[in-house]
Amino acid sequence: MPSRGECWHHRGRRRDNAKGEVLEIIGKLFLGIAAFVLVGWFGARDKRVGGVLLTFPLLNGVAMLAGPDPLGMAAAIYLVMMWNCLLYLVVIHRYELLPPLPPALNAQAKIVLRVATWVLLWAAGGVGLAWFRDTLSVAPLLFVIQLALVAWYTSRWWRPPPPASWPTFGGMWLNRNGLLRIVCFVAAFALLAVVAHVVDDSRWVGWASALPLPGFFALATLTVMQDKQDIASLGDTVLLGPLLFIPFNALLARAIIALRAEQAGTPAEVATVVVFWAVTAGFVFAAVPPFARWRDRL
Length: 298
Hints:
Radius of gyration: 20 Å
Largest sheet: none
Number of strands: 0
Number of domains: 1
Number of helices: 14
Order of helices and strands: HHHHHHHHHHHHHH
């Protein structure tokens, strides 16, 4: 029979675990809102940068901070994130049919219905890929496959430069419609976060962290604000995402494991994730515009 001291110890650990889970959910929520708002805004201003930012690995980094098996989570994420990019590409070009909606429908209703449909499509493919993560998640091989896919797509389907668009941040978000979209995003995110934390398995935690909910909401928002010709330009660069998040996840997982082996503590892990985010974001803003200009000249 456990002593009173052991009982208090176990209760304390349970409280700490519960507190950690709550903090993880809150952290993901705030980062998700930030990604939703910023991806929507940058996507409206620069379509080529916005296409890559649709798959920016914000939530992957948060999930690895809380997960006990970073490498297992990374393995689950690779394939699902590649699926995300392919689904984005289809949705960008066929959003008016996924699902077909009456033109007179309220803009907010269109956003919610489109996101719900896209999440169902994502889940249909993502579940199967999560099951096969152990046999298919070889990061170097997937990187080479994605690189070949990017080369083929950009050589065949690259579009002319999109027209310049300069919506203000306040005009896009600091109004009744913008706040309503954020509220809808928070409600959907909270529901999915609760479901994801019911299962304690690195495969499914990684799978849940790969759900591109911020990007879905940002893209759906753009579909009711801009014409299809502008939206289609996001597809030029959306396939570039895996060339960033495959090395991001592989290297970050190993960095976190090394920090834990040295018992560096949570602050060091958080700082490492922030540095990885900063380097990745810097690479996007430094490399994508020159690449797009080079491809436009061709």
